[in-house]
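Issue 218. Parser rejects a valid record. Input:
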Amino acid sequence: MNFTRWSARLPGTQRRAAARRTGLGISPAQRGEGSVPAARGEFGRCPESLPDVPALDDFSVREILGDLPALVALVHGPEHRVAYVNDAYAAAFGPRPAGSAAADVCPELTELGLLPLMDQVLRSGKSRTVKSRKVRGGGSYTVTCLPAESPKEGGGVLVFAADVTDHAEAAERLRASERRHRETAVTLQRSLLPQELEQPDDLRIAATYQPGGTDAAVGGDWYDVITLGAGRTALVIGDVMGRGVRAAAVMGQLRTAVRAYARLDLPPHEVLQLLDGLAAEIDASQIATCVYAVHDPNEGRLVYASAGHLPIMVRDADGTVRRAEEPTGPPLGTGGWLHSSGVIALPPGSSAVLYTDGLIERRGEDIDEGVAALERALSGATGTPQVVCDRLIRSLGVTAEHDDDVAVLVVQHPTRTGPSAELFHNAGLELLGGIEAAPRARAFASGVLASWRFSPELHDLGVLAASELVANSLQHGTPPMRLGLRRTDRRLIIEVTDGDDHLPRRRRAETEDEAGRGISIVATIASSWGSRRTPGGGKAVWCEFALPAA
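Output the parser choked on:
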């Protein structure tokens, strides 16, 4: 019901409204004339007289201040001479003699940093407040200083302090808990990252991980370097979207899975396809981005696949910076996408940079601006991989208080000249098939290994391994077939490729078997061996011999 409309119908209502409009007063008796008794009984009648209310001066302010649980002190004049302290103040800090300068008899005011504040209040006449200041005894106080007028010249300041020790200790316990939680996450994060990066023969690699500042929870940034065999190297960097221990734990599971999938020596897009399904199984609410790239020294390029991650940057020897373009698929864990691989050249003298978004992303800025800033910084970054890492971190303004994790992986393909170049050699022979292929392969391998001045023992083992791999390819493979030999400063690599995608496996040959011993012989005499499918439907079978240290 609309009370205003209903009450307007009561007798006398119009007269009272007219009186208000004309400013005429109406006596209480007149206000009662013509009113409905029921209505007057319902709403009550205004008393004709009100009881007297004591004035503020009638109250004992001293008693009120004395009984307050808060600490109260009144000081006077520019020297802040003590005029009064209440019982709570005296109980906390002891009695203070009246008339003494606060700087001399109130050390707690100095500890709380109030004396300069009291000067400001006295000069400006405006109150000031400081929160949760701690004194030497361990208590914490929130203090308000108010100007107080005085009949004497000089004015005064009223100091009102509320004890917030319990709140301050609770806040400190909370901060300590958050620090422990963050330290746990950082420790977990660092323990899950590679403690020492693998250093391939043909590349120079360095990486940097920097957690966010104390106000930023640890994220799931990660990187890895995986030696695949036959001189090939997998490079990985990723970022789990999230913060804290959970993100670090998911990151650790993904990194472990990448290493396991890398051992299968699959193409980059197939590795990401497997990771995509695994990420959804680990935690459907956690989405991760990742780049997986493979470097083959015989090809001088990176074959890569990206799941929602930022593009790889490559700096050529002349300072030109190139950006890896498509293909880029959605982040891991989204499902329903077929990833594909791309290629970017990495010739001698060039450097590749893989990084997470914490390096370039800034609040209020478009991420393309950050990518452009990284390109400019990389174009002038020279030196060792670790020097380049440090220069990029500094150039992009990443400090210890950065609001996000940062991971950077720098890969250099060095140009070798002089004595260093003499340690790296390649040789290859196309196998045309027929009964003469095996003898030609043995003769070729023997001549190459002799020219590389290997010891007689290593020479004979290399020729035997090449012969067995070629024989296996001639028997089970299809053209085109090729024998390749590669020497680095640390190993001898022998590899045979053919057009059949059936991968060999090591098996135990029985005494009466006439075949099946070739791979077993290679696995026995070599340091390591393996096989992989090649683009176009073929395969490569390889083995390595570790060279003695110089």
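Fixed in the parser; the record now loads. The two ends are 102 Å apart (CA to CA).
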